[in-house]
Amino acid sequence: MESRSPVVTHLSWGRMEVEGLAPGKDFKLWPGGGRPWDWSETGTRHAPGIQPEDVQELLDQGSVIVVLSRGMDLRLQTSEEALQALEAAGVRVHVEETTAAVAVYNRLAEAGEPVGGLFHSTC
């Protein structure tokens, strides 16, 4: 049986708390775990936004539903290439403001769905 995706237990500007992980600012989450999301690993910036390499890790970890946050002020974009990679993988995608993204993600995680997500807790 696959592991459940960890639930986000707290979200405020610049701070997130996730089951089983140390508090942090931005996270990559997937079935069975997650880690801090370090934008510098893939060259992610607010524009053009989330990169294909950012979402690939979620797919590699077994996510079949992916939730992408746009930041609290909707400044984080998602690159067309990242969306194309998710479409090619056949996953369902939700793109929302961070508070809404966490709500969608938590609902799916609590239902036992194999959901992954990228969460940006500031702008």
UniProtKB/TrEMBL annotation:
What Gene Ontology cellular-component terms does the record carry?
Answer: cytoplasm
Q: Which CDD domains match?
A: Mth938
Location of this chain's protein in the cell: Cytoplasm
Entry's transmembrane regions: none
This protein's source sits in the domain of life called Bacteria
Q: Does the keyword Cytoplasm apply?
A: yes
Coarse class of the primary localization is: cytoplasm
The protein's UniProt keywords, in alphabetical order, are: Cytoplasm
One Pfam entry for this protein is DUF498
The cross-references to InterPro entries, in alphabetical order and at most eight, read: AAMDC, MTH938-like_sf, NDUFAF3/AAMDC
Record-given protein name: Mth938-like domain-containing protein
Provide the species name: Actinomadura viridis
